[in-house]
Amino acid sequence: MKQLLILSGKGGTGKTTVAAAFIRLASARAYADCDVDAPNLHLIVNHPPILERMDFYGLSKARIDPDRCTLCGKCIRHCRFEAIADTPVYAVNPFVCEGCGVCAAVCPANAITLLPAVAGDLMQYSGGGSVFSTARLRMGSGTSGKLVTEVKRQLTTAAGDAELAIVDGSPGIGCPVIASLSGADMVLVVAEPSLSGFSDMVRILRTSAVFNVKTAVCINKHDVNAAIADEIEAFCTKNGISFAGRIPFDTQAATAINSGMTIADIDCPSGRAVKEVFRLVEGLLHIDHRGEEIDHHDAH
Ligand code: SF4
Ligand code: SF4
Asked: N or C: which end of the chain has fewer CB within 10 A?
């Protein structure tokens, strides 16, 4: 199974809009949303109906047994995250606790236990030979990279004989993006034509290069700033990065998405452009639109 990962380097570039259109155009049977802080792919794609939900356990959290606590204060002095308060009783703030276990190690009364804590919801939709893997991190949980790894593990386990998996990655360049890069055969970066968008694109390209993953770039809303769009394309050409095309700003895109459709579902300028981008990317991935692998030379 080939994995296409769609990234953006920052939020708000239209990454999920492109990912949803690609899922539609590829008739993908395996796809995932790795934006575990704010998943929204499920709102656009027509995912399979059967939902399985599981608790995701992140870092363990310390808990103080007030019946054993002798109020010595040692735990507060040793907690470098300042996660323990002594009023009205000694207690751990679970949103601050990093689960390091130092407090439990120093407590002379054995009053502190580290307990697994639910950090998110892992969800798998399946049916009709398709699988959609997604998750939501709970507020205050800092284990998004680990949860992304679980989303991808769930996807690859359930994908069966699907030839192509399309993964909507997390925005930014942090831990969840690095987790989503693992196992990817190709990254499509959706860039925004602005100064910050350009610099975010360069950062995500550098991150992808560390993982030695084949990369292409497309520009969304290219006509919002044609000069920077030209600079982005020139940068790609100069650096040997495949340029997969431009998608125009299109008010009909919002109409489609607000109606629960992808831009590939309606006849509109952005929909026509994304089809061209998709065609180029599937050539780079060496697959045809049915998700079957084709001869390398046929792609050119
Ligand atoms: S170290 Fe243990 S006994 Fe001392 S205050 Fe903390 S929980 Fe209570
Ligand atoms: S486990 Fe670590 S972070 Fe959490 S309360 Fe204990 S010392 Fe602080």
From this structure: C
